[in-house]
Amino acid sequence: MRDWLRSGIHCVLLAAALFCGQISYATAAGVLRVGVQLEPPNLDPTSGAAAAIDEIVYANIFEGLTRINEDGSVAPALAMRWSVSEDGMAYVFHLQRDVRFHDGAPFSAADVKFSLERAGAETSTNAQRAIFSSIVSVDVIDVHTVRIRLSEPLGALPTYLGWGDAVIVSPASAATNATNPIGTGPFVFDRWRQGASVRLSANAEYWGTPAKLDGIEFVFIPDPTAAFAALFAGDVDGFPNYPAPENLPLIERDERFNVLSGASEGEMILAINNDRPPFNDLRIRKALSHAIDKRAVIKGALYGYGEPIGSHFPPHHSAYVDLSNRYPFNPEKARRLIAEAGYPDGFEAQLTLPPPAYARRSGEIIAAQLSAVGVKVRIRNIEWAQWLEQIFANKAYDLTIVSHTEPLDIDIYARDDYYFQYRDEKFKNIIVELKSAVEPDARHKLLVRAQEKLAEDAVNVFLASSPKIGVWDNGVIGVWRHGPVQANDFTQTQLSGGATRSQASDRIGALPIFPILIVLAILALVSAAYFARASLTYLLKRFIVMGITLFAASLIIFTILEVAPGDPAIVMMGVNADEQSLEAVREEFGLDAPAPVRYLNWIIDFARGDFGQSFTYRTPVAELVSERLWVSLPLAFLAFILAAITGITAGAAAAIKEGGPIDAVIRAGSQAGIAAPNFWLSILFVLIFAVGLRWFSAGGFPGWENGFGPALKSLLLPAIALAIPQAAILAQLMRTSMFEIMEKDFVRTAQAKGLTRNAAIRRHGVRNAIIPILTILGLQFSFLIAGAVIVENVFYLPGVGRLVFQSIVQRDLIVVKAIVAMLVLTVVFMAFLIDLSYAIADPRLRRKTQS
Amino acid sequence: MRHTGPSKMRRIPAAAYLGLALVILIVATTLVSIIWTPYDLSVLNIDDRLMPPSPAHPLGTDPLGRDLLTMLMIGGQTSLIVALAAVAIGLGVGAPLGLLASAYGGVADEIVMRMSDIVFAFPALIFAILLAAVFGPGAYTAVIAIGIFNIPVFARLTRGAALPLWTAAFVLSARTAGKSRLQIATEHILPNIAPLLAMQATIQFSLAILAEAGLSYIGLGVQPPAPSWGRILAENQTLISVAPWLSIFPGLAIFVFVLSVNLASDGLRRRYNQPVERLTA
Q1: How far is CA B39 from CA A369, A614, B69, B113, in A?
Q2: Which residue of A has its CA nearest to B233?
Q3: How many CA atoms lie within 13 A of A331 on its CB side?
Q4: What digits encode the pLDDT tens for the residues B54-112?
Q5: Which of A519, A649, A800, B9 to pair with B2, CA 20 to 30 A apart?
Q6: Measuring CA to CA, which residue among A790, A783, A767 is closest to residue A830?
């Protein structure tokens, strides 16, 4: 209790400092603000398969022995040069001198040995462990030289060493890279505001060519509309991968922006379960290829930004062969093939679609095209978590659409347990040969053969190469057009024009907000009991009821999440993780304990204020949530104030001027406010005030540390959208309440004592009419917090609502449990306070309970 | 409980008639779409994509060349069915529970009220997200999620309205006539509170339409290719500057439908001078 109090006081002081002391507008030139679609689960590129990690840290924070240039070629990085032995079984790398990690530790051959052995170890969670497993040993020859011995020739080793999975880490910081990445690169990790952004700043001690930027801020904007709005509102300087191709014509017309359309490693495919009848019949697979008009898919789903392909290979690669017309669009022929295969009347198939827009959009087009040749397609939309479990892990599907973005990943077709279930000996032999081929010519020929073999067997319908479309402000120079690796290399990027940009000051540590809430709750309880003078038995009864409700609710939450599908371990580690890595994660997060034990642990820890560790962010949940509360609570509070003031004023005004034009307008307005969905209002607000008039930013949250004004401004539109329906309800209730009061004797008495009717109403009516409204206000606060789930998503505010929705998609059960439990706690506690307030307001109840 | 009599009836405002007319129009249009629509949604016409409103397509077309008016007509079916089913669940389960609680009091009452508290403790949207995570998104999930949230609304209303009636003269005379509590509840209490329940049902119906739209908007409602108002909005939000009609009309459809139901229901309420409990979900 004393600790709670102390931390509570500590918090109030901090908050005061926050609101009073830091209202300043810090500015600095040269911070590049980059919009990215997906937030990484953590920041350690060696720990999992998520491309979103590499897109932030690779080349910027972490470096490998080699690096991949924009054109896909291999260049020296931490290794100045290297040589390969005659038999291709050993490589010697000569390392850069005078390199230091960001924590000051010097870089040497021992770090290389540590990093590569760690990546290939049995317990490694590295997504590309298969590659490192062919390394027999890493030998330190001297401080600046290492030799890598292989179990088989591996021609692409220098390329692989340039991938994010092979970056060099320091033994001292390897364990904490997930949340505090320490590398050798030109940028130093600054802060990660979960759900919102990651900031890097320039490394003054960098060993190579220093960065031309003061820093980089990666802003997470998952929604395509919000991406568009953020670009137009100037919240970001650009997107390396712009998620809304449909807006590109408009952006291209706008002279403020540059559109860079380049090659990527992405192949969008209609994946086929080759094991399932009728798809195990080559004729059926060929028929699917003939039935689909790739150009219509590219036009309709990718808005023309894509190139048709005929195999699993990107067109910009030197070994590419154009097989896109191997099965020309021909519905007649498709129908014939299907009939030949024994289905003259066609057949039924299920098309399962993951969330990205390209998949959902092309899914509808492909379903229509397939139905034209007699394949009746049922579409099923699922989340990533379900996709990973049902399709990738369990192979329970007919057809699905997905984009494979890993570079040079044609070898996935040689994996027996891969979800295509292709299993072809001839193809596997090609890949085995390719693995050991070192000569460029031989590699080239094998790659061509592999492409042709896949096209011949029509393994999947190869739809299009998904292009990398970057959209940048004109002032940004030196960004990559092409995407040969899953990374955003900003080492040579600069900003022209010397624009002044806002820059956030130091990170405010997560405030222990839960102890404050608990202290407030207890204070409220005690004072309510005191003022109400309600009997102890009444209090105790309400308290027990609250306890039972909370217990039942906690059981419901736990049970519902327990039976939810999707293996959290797979989601955390990515689709390419192997079973060992998954086991390691399950053990780390205690996923393997029996359910009752986990329930009890959860409850006990929750009561102690320990909400566990987030699966995905790898930070304490309490810290995550309290950071989000600094957005959600002010948002809900602002909406609450707006709703209360406008609702009560409007309701009172309407009642006083009953029957007049003001009354009519307010009544019509409140009817409209109740009927308008808040997400639609939000969209309209963005269209009018952010995109059109540009009075407001289209979303995002600058953080309180950048000043009170900008933060408040960014909450205003969402708060209004949230407040309107509640204000409308309040106005109606207030109006009714006023009528009841105005009939009462004391208003008449006041009038009789000489006040005018209006003055009597103002002095006595309004105040009394508000009393019944207060209980409604209490309930509304709970609804406002919950209603923020949708609105926070439209405005991409990093609040609790967005966190809970993201966490459900990411199957971060611990966060979901904590937030839902917290919301439920709030609602139940509000109900309890209302019960007490009845006791205060209604003397009859008080007497009854005391008797 | 206000026992209503003819003397308390008031004039029905013109807006209520307008609301009723719009409700009938929207429902009729939706029913028509079962047998006839201006266009066939299964035929995609990529060349006609993103057409602004024109005589051929009064509300324009979407990125796949589909007619927006047709999509809204068929989407109305989803909204209607989901909202009706959800209110039916709430009324069908909630009203009997409320009656039981009022009839037997004591432990039965306590159980029903505590169960209500527990359901009320979950913000509706969070509950829907949790359910969708388990059963997968779809129309059924939406019906169940919204339906469950409606149960305590009707249970509490029924109990609250029924309790004072148990001391009314006509109930006492029924009891002296030897009728069981269950009989009295169904034969005497229920008919008396039926108008109140019906009016609350219209309010819950309009809230259910809003809730369904919200769930579809975040992708937890009916799944494609079946169109729904909320989902059309979500999918085309990115086109707001290229094709604003796709962001305006579906929202307008939700707005007008909910508004008309509310206006009509307010008219009824005024006629019977009934209080109505209104909470957003």
Answers
A1: 17, 49, 9, 50
A2: A680
A3: 11
A4: 898 999 988 878 899 999 999 999 889 999 999 999 999 999 999 999 888 888 888 88
A5: A649
A6: A783
Q: Which amino acid is at B201?
A: A
Note whether B223 contacts A: Cβ–Cβ < 8 A: yes
- Beta bridge partners of residue A29, listed in sequence order: A500
| Tokens encoding A312 | 């699993």
Question: Chain B neighbours among A 811-830 (CB < 8 Å)?
Answer: 816, 820, 823-824, 827-828
Say if residue A350's pLDDT is above 90: yes
Q: How far apart are CA A789 and CA A811, in angstroms?
A: 17
From CA B239, how far away is CA B225, in angstroms rounded?
Answer: 19
End-to-end CA distance of chain A: 33
In this complex, is the C-beta atom of B125 within 8 Å of any C-beta atom belonging to chain A? yes
Cβ pair A247:B117 closer than 8 A: no
Is the four-CA dihedral A450, A456, A462, A464 of positive or negative sign? Answer: positive
- At residue A553, does pLDDT exceed 80? yes
Tell me, what amino acid is at A692? G
Residues 6+ apart with CB under 8 A from A738: A651, A652, A655, A656, A761, A765, A766, A769
- A761-782, pLDDT tens digit by residue? 776 667 677 767 766 776 677 6
Residues sharing a CB contact under 8 Å with residue A610, sequence separation 6 or more, in sequence order: A620, A622
Structure tokens at A789: 């789930």
Per DSSP, helices labelled H in A535-620 are 536-563, 568-573, 579-588, 595-607
Residues 753-812 (A) with a CB less than 8 A from some CB of B: 779-780, 782-783, 785-787, 789-790, 793, 804-805, 808
Facing residue for A683 by CB, picked from B44, B137, B240: B240
Q: B interface mutation test: which of A221, A231, A232, A246 has the most B CBs within 10 A? A: A246
The predicted structure's pLDDT at residue A273: 94
Rounded to the nearest integer, the mean pLDDT of chain A is 80
Residue of A379, A687, A789 with shortest CB distance to B240: A687
CA A483 to chain centre: 21
- Angle subtended by helix axes A800-809 and A766-794, to nearest 10: 40
Residue A17, pLDDT above cutoff 80: no
Contact call for A675 and B255, based on CB within 8 A: yes
* SS3 of residue A404 by DSSP: strand
Residue B151: which of B110, B117, B177, B181 has the closest Cα?
A: B117
In the numeric block, the tokens 């309209």 are attached to: A684
At residue A391, the 3 state secondary structure works out as helix
Sign, Cα dihedral of A373, A374, A376, A382? negative
Q: Which among A565, A674, A790 has the least Cβ separation from residue B262?
A: A674
Distance CA A262, CA A467 (A): 6
Rounded CA separation A558/A813 (Å):
9
Instruction: Return the residue matching tokens 């624009």.
Output: A499
Inter-chain touch B223–A367, beta carbons under 8 Å: no
Where are any strands of DSSP class E within A406-489? 461-473, 476-477
Count of A–B CB contacts within 8 Å?
A: 195
Interface predicted TM-score (ipTM): 0.88
CB contact at 8 A, B193 and B155: no
Q: Using the predicted structure, report yes or no on whether residue B3 has a pLDDT greater than 60.
A: no
Tabulate helix, strand, coil % of chain A (nearest 5): 50, 15, 35
User: Which pLDDT does position A20 carry in this prediction?
Assistant: 34
Of residues A101, A126, A108, A107, the one with CA closest to residue A181: A101
Residue type, A406: E
Q: How many residues does chain A have?
A: 851
Strand partners, A216: A32, A200
User: Which residues lie closer than 8 Å to A442 by C-beta, 6 or more apart?
Assistant: none
> Is A380 in Cβ contact with B237 (below 8 Å)?
no
